[in-house]
Amino acid sequence: MKQFLFTAALCLFSILGWAKQKPNVVIIYADDLGIGDVSAYGQQTLKTPGMDRIANEGIRFNCGYATSATCTPSRYSLLTGSYPWRNKKAQVLPGDAPLLISTDQPTLPKMLRTAGYTTGIVGKWHLGLGTGKVDWNKRVSPGPNEVGFDYAYIMAATNDRTPTVFVKNGYVDGLEESDPLYVSYRKNFDNLPTGKNNPEMLKMNYSMGHNNSIQNGISRIGYQKGGKAAMWIDENMADTFLVQAQRFVKTHKEKPFFLYYALHQPHVPRVPHQRFAGKTGLGPRGDAIAEADWCVREFLKTLEEENLLENTIVIFSSDNGPILDDGYYDDAVEKLGAHKPAGKYRGNKYSLFDAGTHVPFMVMWKGKIKPKQSDALVCQIDLLSSLAKMVGGEIPKTDSEDVLAALLGKSKKGRKQLITEGLHHRTAIRKDKWLLIPSYKGPKKPSWVDAETGFDINVQLFDLEKDPMQKNNLTKKYPKKVDQLLKQHQAIKGDQ
Ligand code: NG6
Ligand code: CA
Fold first, then answer.
1. pLDDT digits (tens, 9 = 90+) for 248-304
2. Ligand 1 site, residue 448, Cβ cutoff 6 A
3. 3-state secondary structure of 308
4. Which residues are CB-neighbours of 403 under 8 A, at least 6 positions away?
5. Is 267 a pocket residue for ligand 1 (Cβ < 6 Å)?
6. What are the residues whose beta carbons fall under 8 Å from the beta carbon of 184, sequence distance 6 or more?
7. What is the pLDDT of residues 310-348, one digit of tens each?
8. Can you name the residues that pair with 258 across neighbouring β-strands?
9. If 361 and its partner were Cys, which of 61, 125, 172, 246 is the partner (CB 3.0–4.6 Å)?
10. What residue spans in the chain does CATH classification 3.30.1120.10 cover?
11. In the chain, which segments carry CATH 3.40.720.10?
């Protein structure tokens, strides 16, 4: 009897303990993936069953946003809850840029860590490292570990920028002492081969920029020397990150964990593993998406096998809208066919038109969230406050709004409005069905962008419900609306 009571007490204790355990948080964040690239959003040209699983078993948000149409600024907002234009340096960073997030700023991983979570990042960082001149042969700091992540296995910037190595908790992974690594964004080392001088060494040609150091037959932005044993092979990158993400989950499953799994696809250079090359008929961009989708599928399988799906909220989104030619000739344009990466919307990466920031956004939590679609306006910047609310953490004073009820499908209301950003911190305002782009002087696009930026000297007002392609500028028809939205834009953004 005594034994029975003891066992019963133990069971009750563990059930109560389990019930009290905070849910794990996973953010899967794609790079340059458009709302029209995910088949759950309606397209028929490319199947994405992994991503679709999150949308179909969870909530598919129809008005989900990144704060910016480029990577660094969006990631900055995701992690800090602050609009990127509040920090002048929050622009696409070179691979040797200093850490953009100040170590005393509130961040999502810090908030979760304080709430008892083990926090990890695997994949693309692109928020700078160190304080200025980085010595890649010593521990590089401050970095992700200093802004809230207990574990970090990252690529420093982008897959088209040097250094082409992974950094594990501040150390270049696999670096050999006898072959130190040097990086420069100003000049080449010892006349080493470059894309510009040695095109015969390239397996993929550059179309714009990207003609500096060559690694794995692909020339990049930036120069590097040494570090041979640590250099990544692009074809294996997806597998490396997936294994890291799976390992993090398996190692930390006993306590609440937060994993930021930042996929590198379909950003350029698009070099999927042989298993995916040529499989979609859409060229490397489609194949890279298929590879990313497989990663999502495998990762969800791991959560399932570890019995974690019921206690894990999985959020999926992308850092900015899609782009075809982003600096390499890789058939993305030629093989596109009927596929529409931006779905029914006008815009692309770099653009103030809607699809620059209007991205796939799905949230799944088995047993807690009922499958549905939602039209609530939600933004990645809101994850800090919303998740703080969910875990009983501290909600810091930032631009992040608590939209937890919308994220869990309990409310149709998200935020009231959102400031979205294109290049050079130029911004627009999204509110109700409207998108207003203020007037901007100067050239409509920089020479290195092969897509529209949405800049115009005339103010532009679009009704996204009736005119998702943003063909009809309604400023003349609705002058009061223009006035109102310009005032709201000014009130939030000030003179910045
Ligand atoms: C641009 C690069 C582009 C890409 C982008 C950053 C050129 C011509 N273009 O400067 O290829 O790397 O920066 O992309 O160099 S992001 O998704 O990380 O913001
Ligand atoms: Ca990006």
1. 999 999 999 999 999 999 999 999 999 999 999 999 999 999 999 999 999 999 999
2. yes
3. coil
4. 376, 378, 382, 385, 386, 413, 414, 415
5. yes
6. 96, 222, 223, 224
7. 999 999 999 999 999 999 999 999 999 999 999 999 999
8. 25, 119
9. 61
10. 419-493
11. 23-181+226-415
* Of 33, 160, 161, 185, best ligand 1 pocket probe by most atoms within 8 Å of the beta carbon: 160
To the question of pTM greater than 0.90 for the whole model, the response is: yes
Taking the CA of 66 as reference, the closest ligand is 2
How many whole angstroms separate alpha carbon 469 and alpha carbon 487? 25
CATH architecture of 23-181+226-415: 3-Layer(aba) Sandwich (3.40)
Q: Starting from the CA of residue 448, give the closest ligand.
A: 1
Site to substitute for ligand 1 among 29, 32, 68, 71, most atoms within 8 A of C-beta: 71
Whether residue 160 has its Cβ less than 6 Å from ligand 1: yes
C-alpha 447 – ligand 1 centre gap (Å)? 13
Contact 80/388 with Cβ under 8 angstroms?
Answer: no
Query: Cα–Cα distance between 164 and 124 in angstroms, integer?
Result: 12
